[in-house]
Amino acid sequence: MKDKLWIMVKKVIRQADVVLEVVDSRNPEGTRSRIVERYVKSLGKPLIIVINKADLVPREVLDEWKNVLSREFPTIYISAQKRLGTRRLWIILKKYRRNSKLKVAVVGYPNVGKSMIINLLKGRHSVGTSPIPGFTKHTQAVRAAKWLKVIDTPGVVPLREKDEVSLVLKCSISPEELEDPVTPALGLIKIALEKNPTVFKETYGIESTDPLKIIEELAERRKLYLKGGRLNIEEAARIIIRDWQKGKLVFYFLPNEPIG
Ligand SMILES: Nc1nc2c(ncn2[C@@H]2O[C@H](COP(=O)(O)OP(=O)(O)OP(=O)(O)O)[C@@H](O)[C@H]2O)c(=O)[nH]1
Ligand SMILES: [Mg+2]
Asked: Do 55 and 82 sit in the same domain of this protein?
């Protein structure tokens, strides 16, 4: 199944004149797809990095990331949801408009906002978006302007990438897909606390800095109990993962930091 997604994405890249690689502003390095970058380079096509979800990260941090990533590829930052940076996106696309038409592939990890960017360019809702990673299952071409065709693709994770904490930090895996959501949530909490020590107080009013206690306290506060009265820490762990994916739990990576 996952191989099929890669085949689809590669086909769209081959058809495109330019590739937009969308990354998440909170974890740009982690959500960069080296495989995609190498493939696009091998075809001699231009690639533009679009740092999306810019509304979740301070401007200075976005500028830092832009500087670092620009050494390798032209890079811009936008917020598709808040419709910020739209002008920058159009300007950069117009630069690549050679003769009259331009075909653009929009690619990247799941949940980074590819479909929302397609809708932003189109100017109205035309492809489905969702907080659930892996929502887009097929490619879809949309005419955003007379001269511009943009192609939405399914989010893809390298096949050998299996580390659940890392996938959670990239918002690439749905918490429902995790057999045991507690272990990756513990990893997420540890890194969240390193990046923003007050994040759980800010988000849930929880003072503790012990990862397991944070999950347990959230389960208590939300009255999440299993039959028999045991705390449903699995559900609390899923809530934390979901809140990070939705941008409710706010922390971010800086350039030159390990990706966790
Ligand atoms: N805060 C914030 N959230 C965003 C932004 N862009 C997209 N999102 C949210 O991110 C989630 C994923 O957006 P999609 O456009 O469906 O992402 P995708 O890359 O197409 O995801 P897949 O189809 O799963 O690969 C949705 O819940 C969006 O609301 C943004 O600029 N800021
Ligand atoms: Mg999508």
From this structure: yes
Specify the CATH number for the domain of residue 32.
3.40.50.300
Question: Has residue 251 been placed in a domain?
Answer: no
Is pLDDT above 80 for 8? yes
| Cα(207) to centroid(ligand 2), Å | 36
Residue with tokens 């050998």: 160
User: What's the domain count of the chain?
Assistant: 2
Residue 250: CA count within 13 A, CB half-sphere = 11
Instruction: Report how far apart, in Å, the C-alpha atoms of 76 and of each of 93, 152, 160, 235, 250 are.
Output: 11, 19, 29, 37, 21
Average pLDDT of span 189-214 = 97
Q: Which of 55, 81, 252 to mutate to test the pocket of ligand 1 (most atoms within 8 A of CB)?
A: 81
The boundaries of the domain holding residue 13 are 2-152
Q: Extract the tokens encoding 209.
A: 């800095």
* Span from the CA of 242 to the centroid of ligand 1 (angstroms): 13
The predicted-structure confidence for 30-83, as pLDDT tens digits, reads as follows 999 999 999 999 999 999 999 999 999 999 999 999 999 999 999 999 999 999
- Model pLDDT for residues 126-137, shown as the tens digit of each residue: 999 999 999 999
201 shares a domain with 114 = no
Report if pTM > 0.85.
Answer: yes
> What angle, 0 to 180 degrees and rounded to 10, lies between the N-to-C axes of helices 233-245 and 182-195?
50
Taking the C-alpha atoms of residue 201 and residue 77, their distance in angstroms, rounded to an integer, is 29
CA dihedral 93, 142, 81, 85 (to 10 degrees): 10
Q: CATH number of the domain that 220 lies in?
A: 1.10.1580
Q: pLDDT of 74-112, one tens digit each? A: 999 999 999 999 999 999 999 999 778 999 999 999 999
